[in-house]
Amino acid sequence: MVAANMTLGSEHNILGAYLIGSGFIAGISNLLGLMAFWWYPHVLCTPSAIPEVALLLSDLCVACIHPFSGFAAIKNEWVWGEYGCQLYGFFGFLFGNFQCLCVPFVAFDRFIESDAPPLLKKLRTKRIYARVFVLLFLLTFIWAVTPLPIIGWA
């Protein structure tokens, strides 16, 4: 039995336009956020800037891959080949997962800033935050490159 394509071409065009448009808007928004940190370097001197910049960068990278799926939706097929599919999945998982790790850390940083015990406030340094984010990125990278056929992806 052959699976029939049950979607209309107009649905793919709408979805593709949405993905391209949202990727463009998200990319511009994240670039503006990064430029704000660039224009006001005294803000970068705080430990809170590290998780915020990491979140902006990872969100920018996710926004940059939106047009690939948008163009594929308009074309009604994946046009980037097998290697493009692997890269798209790798970078989507890498930066999407890193975002999922950045958001709780931003919330944790806000807790430390506002209402944490003094012991936690002592740990709020740029050096410690930078090390934590390097470890978070390495953890995400290991999950992205490790073939795990037992779980379902490879």
From TrEMBL:
InterPro entries: GPCR_opsins (IPR050125), GPCR_Rhodpsn (IPR000276), GPCR_Rhodpsn_7TM (IPR017452)
Main localization (coarse): membrane
Membrane-crossing segments per the record: 15-41, 86-108, 128-151
GO terms under biological process: visual perception
Location relative to the cell: Membrane
Pfam families: 7tm_1
GO cellular component term of the entry, any: membrane
Keywords: G-protein coupled receptor, Membrane, Receptor, Sensory transduction, Transducer, Transmembrane, Transmembrane helix, Vision
Gene Ontology terms, MF aspect: G protein-coupled receptor activity
Superkingdom, natural source: Eukaryota
Record flagged with keyword Transferase: no
Membrane topology term: Multi-pass membrane protein
Residue span, G-protein coupled receptors family 1 profile domain: 29-154
Protein name: G-protein coupled receptors family 1 profile domain-containing protein
Organism name: Plectus sambesii
